[in-house]
Amino acid sequence: MMISLRRMNAILQKDFKDFSRNLAVSTVLIMPIGLGLMYGRAGDHSIEYHFMLINLAFAMVATYVQCCLIAEEKEKNTLRGLMLSPASTTEILGGKSLLTFILTMFVVVITAYFAEYKPANIGIMAVAFILSSFFYIAFGTLLGLFSKSVMEASVIVMPVVTVFSLGSFLPTIVDQYPIAKVGMYLPNIQLIELATKVEAGSGMGDVLVELGIILAWVVLLCILTAVIYRKRMVD
After folding, report:
1. For residue 15, which of 38, 55, 99, 202 is within the disulfide window of CB 3.0 to 4.6 Å?
2. 8 A C-beta contact, residue 149 and residue 142
3. C-alpha angle 82/86/87, rounded to 5°?
4. End-to-end Cα spacing for the chain
5. Do residues 32 and 62 touch, judged by C-beta distance below 8 A?
6. Which helix (H) or strand (E) holds 214?
7. What percent of the chain clears pLDDT 90, i.e. is strictly above it?
8. What is the pTM of this model?
């Protein structure tokens, strides 16, 4: 089935108008950037602190904003109209994710810049950031499908923000708490492992395992999101 870019663009423009009118949601863009500026001036340039901010940016923008956009559609009873429109599942979910993807990459790059994070290999980190954004956006879409309102979405997404931002320090406690090794396969931790290897001079071939794990999370969440979305269509 051919994907209609015109339909996806129409959804993107609609989301931009809704997002610009919702100050409560749009203000979340400021927090990661502000923290990046603060930590950059403080002079702490460790990988853990850099990626606490970067993962916070992913969670606050990609997951939070996406979750609220989907929940707002449900709250206004407009998501049902989209589901019943000629647009396919890929066009609807892709269109609903475009704005979030653009905002996410913008905030992540600005946050990293203010925090003075300078990766040794920008190309590898760009691929890792794009894959990570897909994961967080898919997670936000999934949570949004379970939310009934923007207020409920704001609450349900907060544990995700906490786990994936403060979870950046998980590698530092693995030796003390062996059970924490399970969390080492989370995409935010894999992003840190990848960044650490890149700083040590590793190339693309050396980080394929980390990229593969993040990609596996993306595929898993995309499949789960599509299943839940289609289930909502017939509820």
Report:
1. 99
2. no
3. 60
4. 25
5. no
6. helix 208-234
7. 22
8. 0.87
